[in-house]
């Protein structure tokens, strides 16, 4: 219970009266109206009260005569669980002159002195043990951030940093949310009252959820309708040497190919005394396309014939040797490539052996799931129809097969023939000979913030 006693001084004008003009038994007194108010703060935001009146905070007082004092009391009750524990609670009384009794029309109407304020203000000081001896709290808040991916291990969420060696995080937009981990410390500072973190997101990111450490007080956040402005209460107060860590989960569906980086503005606020400047959380954006490559040989084993045929005597593909098909299946696990880039299947084709003799003759190629675009160089496919020969000295030639319009899956088939003569002349003593075709994937004409994650295939 708090007892407030307010004293006021009243000056009456005129302070001299000619009693010869009045009847001796005529007495005049003044009625004074009063109104108490408490915890009225100058703010555009309506704040909840911290005290309440026990009884009616207004009334009347009768002043019976000159230089006579009369008093009144009002009781206040301190409310519980209010947030503003730092600022004093103002209590004020406002006075006005009411109607007086035994008044005549010949008398001068009294008014309060215009040069004397009609209200008095006193304050209740709230003592805070976590502040200095002067009851002023000087906090030492610091904010650190880190972009993370969220993983689940043993039923618990684990956050792993996305920062590179240069300290800058790289975001890869996927269907999974990313986490912005925020850590606020108050090392060596006085209590930080009503500490908040204001998080302003760009239009490319949206709020999804808040994850805080179970051992710490729960972080209380509100979000605007667009999901781009997050206001989080971190503690009241954050005490000296305390630390608060929480993660803001963000969706990346709004990131487009033109987005090279994202900038998030972080602003700490506290009613304690500290000059806090905004922090910019920056992360690069990199699109990683998830393509998988599988290879298959049909048939997996072949045998070469017994007759020797020179190049000049070959009349058809069947004269060259046994047919072998190399199938490469490409699976796209991410977004469709139709709208922004093209991929290419790159094959290291074992055209000749070390002696320069033909091994595999590539007769033609076919594809499914992509646009019909021929592989290149075209002079390495069905070579017999062209008089040109390979003059660059390479034993393997690289074949490029465009995968234009790749959506979900595609297949490229290379139809080839074993060069029978070469195998009879150079490898007839071998019980087993494996010929490997290496294949890789690459992107063509892609934006600089787009890359490929795929495995090399062997067949």
Automatic annotation (TrEMBL):
<feature type="domain" description="Integrin alpha third immunoglobulin-like">
    <location>
        <begin position="291"/>
        <end position="384"/>
    </location>
</feature>
<keyword id="KW-0325">Glycoprotein</keyword>
<feature type="domain" description="Integrin alpha second immunoglobulin-like">
    <location>
        <begin position="131"/>
        <end position="285"/>
    </location>
</feature>
<keyword id="KW-0401">Integrin</keyword>
<dbReference type="InterPro" id="IPR032695">
    <property type="entry name" value="Integrin_dom_sf"/>
</dbReference>
<dbReference type="GO" id="GO:0007229">
    <property type="term" value="P:integrin-mediated signaling pathway"/>
</dbReference>
<dbReference type="InterPro" id="IPR013649">
    <property type="entry name" value="Integrin_alpha_Ig-like_1"/>
</dbReference>
<protein>
    <submittedName>
        <fullName>Integrin alpha-6 CD49 antigen-like family member F VLA-6</fullName>
    </submittedName>
</protein>
<feature type="domain" description="Integrin alpha third immunoglobulin-like">
    <location>
        <begin position="389"/>
        <end position="454"/>
    </location>
</feature>
<dbReference type="GO" id="GO:0009897">
    <property type="term" value="C:external side of plasma membrane"/>
</dbReference>
<feature type="domain" description="Integrin alpha first immunoglubulin-like">
    <location>
        <begin position="31"/>
        <end position="127"/>
    </location>
</feature>
<dbReference type="InterPro" id="IPR048285">
    <property type="entry name" value="Integrin_alpha_Ig-like_2"/>
</dbReference>
<dbReference type="GO" id="GO:0008305">
    <property type="term" value="C:integrin complex"/>
</dbReference>
<dbReference type="Pfam" id="PF20806">
    <property type="entry name" value="Integrin_A_Ig_3"/>
</dbReference>
<dbReference type="Pfam" id="PF08441">
    <property type="entry name" value="Integrin_A_Ig_1"/>
</dbReference>
<keyword id="KW-0472">Membrane</keyword>
<dbReference type="Pfam" id="PF20805">
    <property type="entry name" value="Integrin_A_Ig_2"/>
</dbReference>
<dbReference type="GO" id="GO:0005178">
    <property type="term" value="F:integrin binding"/>
</dbReference>
<dbReference type="GO" id="GO:0050900">
    <property type="term" value="P:leukocyte migration"/>
</dbReference>
<dbReference type="GO" id="GO:0033627">
    <property type="term" value="P:cell adhesion mediated by integrin"/>
</dbReference>
<dbReference type="GO" id="GO:0098609">
    <property type="term" value="P:cell-cell adhesion"/>
</dbReference>
<dbReference type="InterPro" id="IPR048286">
    <property type="entry name" value="Integrin_alpha_Ig-like_3"/>
</dbReference>
<dbReference type="GO" id="GO:0007160">
    <property type="term" value="P:cell-matrix adhesion"/>
</dbReference>
């Amino acid at each position: 219970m708090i007892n407030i006693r307010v004293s006021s001084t009243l000056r009456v004008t005129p302070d001299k009266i000619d009693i010869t003009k009045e009847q001796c038994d005529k007495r005049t007194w003044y009625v004074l109206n009063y109104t108490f108010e408490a915890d009225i703060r100058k703010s555009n935001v309506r704040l909840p009260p911290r005290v309440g009146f026990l009884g009616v905070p207004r009334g009347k007082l009768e002043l019976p005569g000159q230089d006579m004092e009369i008093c009144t009391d009002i009781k206040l009750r301190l409310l519980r669980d209010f947030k503003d524990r730092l600022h004093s609670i103002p209590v004020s009384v406002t006075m006005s002159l009411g109607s007086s009794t035994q008044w005549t029309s010949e008398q001068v109407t009294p008014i309060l002195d215009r040069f004397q304020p009609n209200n008095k203000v006193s304050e209740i000081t709230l003592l805070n043990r976590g502040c200095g001896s002067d009851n002023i709290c000087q906090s030492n808040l610091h904010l650190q951030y880190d972009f993370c991916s969220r993983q689940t291990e043993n039923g618990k969420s684990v956050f792993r940093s996305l920062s590179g060696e240069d300290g800058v995080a790289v975001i890869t937009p996927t269907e999974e949310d990313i986490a912005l981990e925020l850590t606020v410390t108050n090392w060596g500072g006085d209590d930080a009252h009503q500490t908040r973190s204001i998080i302003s997101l760009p239009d490319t990111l949206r709020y999804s959820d808040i994850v805080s450490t179970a051992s710490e007080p729960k972080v209380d956040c509100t979000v605007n309708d667009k999901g781009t402005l997050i206001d989080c209460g971190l503690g009241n107060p954050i005490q000296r040497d305390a630390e608060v860590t929480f993660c803001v989960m963000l969706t990346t569906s709004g990131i487009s190919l033109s987005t090279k980086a994202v900038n998030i503005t972080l602003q700490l606020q506290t009613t304690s005394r500290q000059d806090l400047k905004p922090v910019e959380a920056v992360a690069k954006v990199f699109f990683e396309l998830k393509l998988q490559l599988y290879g298959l040989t049909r048939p997996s084993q072949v045998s070469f014939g017994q007759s020797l045929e020179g190049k000049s005597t070959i009349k058809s593909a069947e004269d060259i040797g046994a047919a072998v098909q190399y199938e490469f299946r490409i699976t796209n696990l991410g977004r469709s490539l139709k709208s922004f880039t093209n991929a290419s299947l790159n094959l290291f084709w074992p055209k000749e052996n070390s002696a320069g003799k033909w091994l595999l003759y590539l007769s033609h190629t076919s594809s499914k799931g992509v646009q019909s675009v021929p592989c290149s160089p075209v002079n390495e496919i069905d070579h017999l129809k062209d008089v040109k020969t390979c003059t660059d000295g390479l034993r393997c030639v690289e074949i490029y097969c465009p995968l234009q319009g790749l959506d979900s899956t595609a297949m490229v088939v290379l139809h080839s023939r074993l060069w029978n003569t070469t195998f009879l002349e150079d490898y007839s003593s071998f019980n087993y000979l494996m010929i490997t075709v290496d294949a890789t994937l690459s992107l063509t004409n892609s934006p600089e913030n787009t890359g490929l994650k795929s495995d090399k295939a062997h067949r």
